[in-house]
Structure formats: structure tokens, C-alpha cells
Amino acid sequence: MNTNQMGSRTASKLGFCLGLMVSILALSSCSQANKATMSSPATAPLAPADTREMANSTPEQTTPEPKKQSQLIKRAQLTLVVESIHQTTESITTIIQKQQGDILKFEAQKSADNSQRQTAYLEFRVPQQRLETTLNALAKLGTVENQMITAEDVSDQLVDFQARLRNLRKSEDMILKIMERSGSVGDVLKAANELSTIRESIERIDAQLRNLQNQVAYSTINLTLESPVSAASTPDNLGLRIQETWGSATHTMGEFTWLLVGLTLWLLAFSPYLFLLGGAVYGYRWYRQNKIK
């Protein structure tokens, strides 16, 4: 074998070895790329169907905000016709105590006879959650002639008062911190005056806020009671009326008698002038008659 043939064989072997190494490196890089792709599925692009599912599932995960309950001031008016105002008033007192309420006002009007209705007026308050229960219990005491319930929403006013109180208290804390620092007497006095003004505003708004909250917590009921008119008068009332009529008649007769006595005294006091006037008239007539003759 000559030298040229040996060189060609050596070159072919080297080329085969180099090709084999390149193939091995290419296969190893492909396998590593496939492993990286399989180990990180989150980086893969989403299909359109997956995108739609995520868009549809997003509203289901959000929780809607709870609706705030309205703060209402409730008032009620009720008119009842009852047989006995006294007995009904006692029953009403029992109902109010049972419903944890308070009587604010009571007024009764009674005429001298039974020709007019006897009336009574009550004003009381009960917890708002017991308003309907109280009205139903009161309606059973007589005949309902009139009933009305009104409500006023004060939610915005309560929120406004609470916000103003928070801001005023923050200002109060800031001024207190300023007063703790060392400063001139004028600055301290100015801060003290400002603090006094802020605290007055806090007390006023806090009182208004508590008043509104109290009106929301308790409902006011205005109740009017009326008794039926009696057709016949009782003997006691008849005797009382006769006595009053006799007293009025004797009083009028006495005043008329004193009037006559007074008139008589006036005539006696002016009798001389009356005699003079009568004599003058008589003399004038006598003179006229004699002159004509």
C-alpha cells in the first residue's frame, strides 16, 4: 500500500469521527431543550379558550360590597275610640313597660257632662324594632280611627357628623402636640384659644350626633284616646246642672236689685235739680197759657 492510499484512509476516519461528535452534541442539545420546555409549562402561551375561561372566572372571585342599612327616624300617630279612658290608660302603661318604652307626655280633658267626648293625649317612645309590635298591641284596646307612620332617612347626616368629629379630634391632637413643645407665651395662648374653640365644636356636634342616634334607636308614638258620647245624663249630673242654674238665676236677680237701689239713690241725690227743672217747665207753660188769654 502506497503513502497516498494511507493518507486518504486516515482522512476519511477523521471525518467520520468529527461527524459522529457533531451528531452527539446536536442530540444532547435537543434533549435539554425538550426537558426545559416540559419543566416550565407556565411559560407556555395560553390558548384562546383558556383566556376566555379566565375572563369568565374573574367576576366570580370578586365579592360585592355589603349594602349599608339606612338609618331611619320613625314616628307614628294613632287615634283610638275606647270605652273607658282610665282603664285604657292603665293598659297602655303596661304595654309600654313591656316594650321597654318611656312615657313623655300625658294630658286628659274631661267635660262637665257626657254630651262631649272625653279625650286623652299620650306621647311615648319605644325601641324602633318594637314599633310594629307596640302598635298592634295598642290597636287591640279599642277601635282605630286613624293611624299613620312616617320615616325620615338621616344616614347622610350621621356620616357627615362622624366625619366632622374625626377631623376635629385630629386637629385637637395636633394642637395638643404643639402645646407640648417649648414656645413663647403668645403661641401657647393662641393654641389654647384654638383648642377651646375646637372642643366646643366637638361637644356641639357630638350632642347632635347622639340626638340623631337616639331618635333612630327609639320611635315616637302620639296616641289620642276618645270615649263615646253618652246619650243620657246621670242623676248626679242633672242635680248639678239644676244647682248651677239656680245659683246663676239668684246671682242675676241680686245684681238687678242692686241696680234698682243704685238708681233710686241717684234720683234722691239729684231731686233738688229735678224739682227746679219741673218748676221751670210748669212756670213756662203757665206763662204761655195766661199770655194767650
Textual characterization of the structure:
The chain has about 290 residues and is α+β, with helices and mostly antiparallel strands. Helix content is about 65%, strand content about 15%. It contains eight helices and five strands; from the N terminus they run H-H-E-H-E-E-H-E-H-H-E-H-H.
Shape, per Cα inertia axes: elongated
Mean pLDDT over the residues: 77
Which strands sit side by side, in order, in the main sheet? 2-3-5-1-4
Structural class, from secondary structure content? Answer: alpha+beta
Total strands: 5
Q: Which stretches are low in confidence, meaning pLDDT under 50 for 5 or more residues running? A: 1-8, 10-14, 22-60, 231-235
What summary fits the major beta sheet?
A: 5 strands, mixed
**How many DSSP H or I helices?**
8
- Cα-atom Rg, whole angstroms? 54 Å
Gap from first CA to last CA: 220 Å
Which characteristics define this entry?
293 residues; alpha+beta; five-stranded mixed β-sheet; disordered N terminus
